[in-house]
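Fold in tokens:
===
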Amino acid sequence: MTRSKKTIYILAAVCAVNLAFIWGHSLFSIAESSSESSRILRFILSLFRVDASPELFSRLHHILRKCAHFTEFACLGALSASITYYFNGRDVSRAWTAVSLPMLFCLLAASTDETIQIYTGRGNSVSDILLDFSGSLIAIAVFFIVVLIRRNKEHTNSESPADDE
């Protein structure tokens, strides 16, 4: 098996685990989900020795949950972009394919995530789909910007004449 195939398989496995994590947490009830994020927030606040009022705690809790969604989908976006990149043989000349497939995958994953939440009594939200998809889009964009910068740097370094002084 080639190194590139191994990389694709590893990335696909990590992507599947990421997706299972996202969808698994969507299966939590409102109470379970809120309890989990409250525990995490209490831990973070204790690290900084912050004693938050109930109102502040509620605001921070909301922010934490939205940041978690954004981050989970940013990871999914970066992973799916890297899979597409390696699957295309690290060829960025087919940029539309390299970008559109991860975008479509992440949009479907976000929509599925919100659909799962309907069945757990948490409801769904178009704004959550947009937030999740935004995390994916930013990660996909950052991934390919880094790839293009590295390619340009490698191309520039290979063309620069050697100093013969």
Summary: The chain has a mean pLDDT of 91. Helices lie at 3-26, 30-47, 54-87, 95-119, 126-159.
